[in-house]
Design brief:
This protein folds into 2 domains: about 100 residues, Homeodomain-like (Arc Repressor Mutant, subunit A, Orthogonal Bundle); about 160 residues, Alpha-Beta Barrel (Multidrug-efflux Transporter 1 Regulator Bmrr, Chain A), CATH 3.20.80. The chain starts with a helix and ends with a strand. An 8-stranded antiparallel beta sheet has the order 1-6-8-7-3-4-2-5. About 40% of the residues lie in helices and about 20% in strands. It is elongated and about 70 Å long. The model has no long low-confidence stretch (mean pLDDT about 90). The protein is built from 10 helices and 8 strands. The longest helix is centred in the first third of the chain and has 19 residues. The protein has about 290 residues and is an alpha+beta fold. Helix 2 packs across helix 3 and helix 5 crosses helix 6. Pfam families: GyrI-like (PF06445), HTH_18 (PF12833).
């Protein structure tokens, strides 16, 4: 349960310092996690980026103060981190559907996002099939693109569009003959989260021992202990559900924490939309 406790400690820290200029590095430090692993864990468990959570909470409190005090709107804008009343009004309308002036006059309804409490399920009703794999250093080759992580700040084509493009131009078919490692299937790899832009580097790749082919790049993975989780069901729903179970059930009830390595999704089945599709998630642990 140490993971849950550390996450809750970081959330409590955010609430205490909500009106300050918080950074992901300072918040993640409260949970004893790197900024990238904290953000990934937070998003998997809450479906929100840290930035989205802070924004929603600040605008919730701003709405409460707006309707219960005579504080000027311009003062509220500065108090809750907006450089101009116009920026505050735009964000306020996006969340609540009304302007601050309309809210003060009782027009429309307000959306309240309450303080977050992390809860996990340790029922173990459905088993999770996995194996522990001690691996020597290995390499993957493929193509990389910076992709938005989702949430309110997400802009531009994302991971599904990246896969569609690489399938259409033949890159995925080019990777399949290169597979000659222990991780089967074409891989989706997440790395280098950027909290400022809410983006990450996403790779479509294959484990390959050999020369890096022209037009492809590579990642070298050091020796590490990996947990390979079996994922059954139609993609992408099954992968999303598996990640939630890993972080909300498996990690809290086992003596491991994620290592500082990119996570890997291995797409093994030929028909990924089939309910009988079987694939894997590889998570490096310490």
């Amino acid at each position: 349960m140490a993971l849950v406790e550390s996450l809750q400690k970081a959330i409590d820290y955010m609430e205490v310092h909500l009106l300050e200029n918080l950074t992901i590095e300072v918040i993640a430090k409260q949970a004893n996690l790197s900024s990238s692993h904290f953000q990934r864990t937070f998003m998997i468990l809450t479906d929100l980026s840290v930035g989205d959570y802070l924004r929603r909470r600040r605008l919730t409190l701003a709405a409460q103060e707006l309707t219960s005090s005579e504080c000027k709107i311009i003062d509220l804008a500065y108090k809750y981190g907006y450089e101009t009343p116009e920026a505050f009004t735009k964000a306020f309308r996006k969340q609540h559907g009304v302007t601050p002036s309309e809210a003060r006059n009782g027009i429309g309804k307000l959306q309240s996002y309450n303080r977050l409490t992390i809860q996990v399920s340790l029922k173990g009703v459905e088993p999770m099939n996995y194996r522990i794999v001690e691996r020597e250093a290995f390499k993957v080759v493929g193509v990389k693109r910076e992709c938005p992580c989702g949430g309110e700040k997400a802009e531009g084509p994302g991971i599904p569009e990246f896969w569609a493009e690489m399938n259409a131009n033949g890159t995925v078919n080019r990777l399949i003959p290169l597979l000659n490692g222990k991780i089967h299937g074409v891989l989706g790899i997440s790395d280098n989260y950027n909290p400022e832009s809410n983006t990450m580097d996403y790779w479509i790749a294959a484990e390959h021992a050999g020369v890096v082919p022209d037009g492809l790049s590579s990642i070298d993975f050091p020796a590490a202990k990996w947990i390979a989780f079996e994922v059954k069901g139609s993609i992408p729903t099954a992968i999303t559900d598996a990640w939630k179970r890993i972080y909300s059930e498996w990690l809290p009830s086992n003596g491991y924490a994620p290592a500082e390595l990119p996570s890997i999704e291995a797409y093994i089945s030929q028909d990924l939309t089939s309910p009988n599709s079987t694939n894997e998630i590889w998570l490096a642990v310490q």
